[in-house]
Design a protein that fits this description.
about 350 residues; alpha/beta; Quinone Oxidoreductase, Chain A, domain 1; Rossmann fold; seven-stranded mixed sheet; six-stranded parallel sheet; globular
């Protein structure tokens, strides 16, 4: 089968036509999916450009935002049939560790991350356990619906389960990339008042269309200016702040924008340390700082329903599509910061 293979850091993906095709065994509980599309994520850029280690030593197929159609299944699979459109979650859990058994399967001790621990979605086919995938309704196109696997579900978890946004909450989002913009629309669905902060005017315009009630251009503002603007809009500080970049400087801005008793949700990843952290303010003002990773498997059916009924949108967020043969051009679009989400079309 055709696949784009990650072989070493700072090297373009190698598109091969003879990568081994997955094979179904008799009663394995697995299905084979003909992958229609797979989204390009900054996590993939981290592996290729910055040497972030993958769970499996390359060669490896990257990609973790997959949607496609069932083409084969083992003898014991009864919940799917050939041709069914399905979504593959970016990360699957073991179901038996202490985290899974206490409802936190997104931080499973034995999780499988597609495109890191095992081969992912930048290929024509993939074999996955039937128990881990979800039917996609006909109302959701596969080419755009693939981004539900991460770009939609990760913000959903951040907003609902970690940020605990309630109707009427002022919630600021710093960084309007794919994750940040979807955080904005998830806040709107939760009944909160989203404030979007970014340096790119076009992304702030998209944030408005997705429900941001206020936007702040940070291009010509220093830290004090950004924080001051948020405090003015909210009458003293946001209830919840989401940092969706992964930068100590913007993390500090997000924290300082909060009211007394506010909650900061770290959604963006950074390997850097934040020096000068004001632990006294955290204690004296009862501030909360929480991390947010991925999404619980149990939440996917609700997310899919929200997309199906139009509460959450996916089509406007996919701003570029490339065939698998041109995947490296698709990655260059993300490197240049163009658009919101690029997807790779995996069938010839």
């Amino acid at each position: 089968m055709r696949a784009a293979v990650f072989e070493k850091v700072k090297t373009p993906l190698n598109v091969k036509d003879d990568y081994p095709t997955p094979v179904i065994s008799g009663t394995s509980g697995n299905v084979i999916i003909d992958i229609t599309a797979c989204g390009v994520c900054h996590t993939d850029i981290g592996f290729i450009d910055h040497g972030v280690p993958t769970g499996k030593t390359p060669p490896l197929i990257l990609g973790h935002e997959m949607a496609g159609k069932i083409s084969e299944f083992s003898d014991d699979v009864t919940t799917f049939k050939k041709g069914d459109p399905v979504l593959v979650p970016a990360v699957t859990s073991c179901g038996i560790c202490s985290q899974c058994r206490t409802g936190r399967e997104n931080i499973c001790s034995n999780q499988t991350f597609y495109g890191s621990n095992v081969d992912g979605g930048f290929a024509e086919k993939i074999m996955v356990p039937a128990k881990d995938i979800f039917h996609l309704p006909s109302e959701i196109p596969l080419e755009e619906g693939c981004i539900i696997a991460d770009a939609i579900s990760t913000p959903y978890h951040a907003v609902k389960n970690r940020g605990q946004v309630r109707p009427g909450d002022w919630a600021v989002v710093i960084g309007c990339g794919g994750i940040g913009l979807n955080t904005v629309q998830n806040i709107k669905v939760a009944g909160g008042f989203p404030i979007a902060v970014d340096i790119v005017p076009e992304k702030l315009e998209i944030a408005k269309k997705l429900g941001a009630v206020e936007t702040i251009s940070a291009k010509d503002l220093d830290d004090r200016g950004i924080v001051g603007a948020i405090r003015k809009i909210t009458g003293g500080g946001a209830d919840i702040a989401f940092e969706a970049i992964g930068n100590p400087a913007t993390f500090k801005q997000a924290f300082n924008s909060l009211r007394t008793g506010g909650r900061l949700v770290a959604v963006g990843y950074s390997p850097k340390r934040w020096d000068g952290f004001d632990i006294g303010r955290v204690m004296f003002r009862e501030m909360e700082i929480v991390g947010s990773l991925g999404c619980r498997t149990v939440d996917y059916p609700r997310i899919i329903d929200l997309v199906k009924n139009g509460s959450l949108v996916v089509e406007p967020l996919v701003t570029a599509k490339y065939p698998l043969s041109e995947i490296n051009e698709g990655f260059d679009v993300m490197r240049r910061g163009e658009g919101v989400r690029t997807v790779i079309l995996c069938q010839k």
